[in-house]
Design a protein that fits this description.
199 residues, Endonuclease III, domain 1, two-stranded parallel ribbon, 2 strands, 2% strand, DNA-3-methyladenine glycosylase activity, Adenine_glyco, DNA-3-methyladenine glycosidase I
Length: 199
Amino acid sequence: MDKKRCGWVGDDQVYLDYHDYVWGRPVYGSQELFAKLCLDGQQAGLSWITILKKQKNYEAAFANFDPAVIAKFDAAKVEELLQDKGIVRNRLKVNSIIKNARAYMANFSDTKGEQGNDFSEFLWSFVGGSPIVNHFEAMEEIPVKTSESEAMSNALKKMGFNFVGPTICYAFMQAVGMFNDHATYCFCYDKCNKEGSSS
């Protein structure tokens, strides 16, 4: 018997694996959350699978999304990245990852000592520290943004992050398990609930 999946999943194996093993699973590592936030920003105007297929290329081009390294990228590095066919060669999007890394270092760096905040705790605070479980039965019921994603977007923008509008933030929050938006009939729905309650 075939597994029942969310309606947005296509037939591409990359997409199937992403849905089955990644999307909606709670993520708490600060650097992994930073990477996912940047990648969601790259999606703007494109389909998610386009970025998903380029994820390994992005990791190679952007130092595995280490904010401390990316924050030091200069104009010459930007020009080099714009020649990289493995990523989306859009100047605004390339610069957005660098800008976000600098915002991360300014607000969440360990080097800030007692002044530094924890990026993971900060992001998860918008959902009270644990996943919000929704009960959607159809794709049409799922919102494109929520009050939580709008609050996250506003806070990140004030800190200097960009490509973090409320719709991008909501897609990010779904992807990292802050919301369980798997359809109730999807075989991943209960799995994500268990992972969220055990974290």
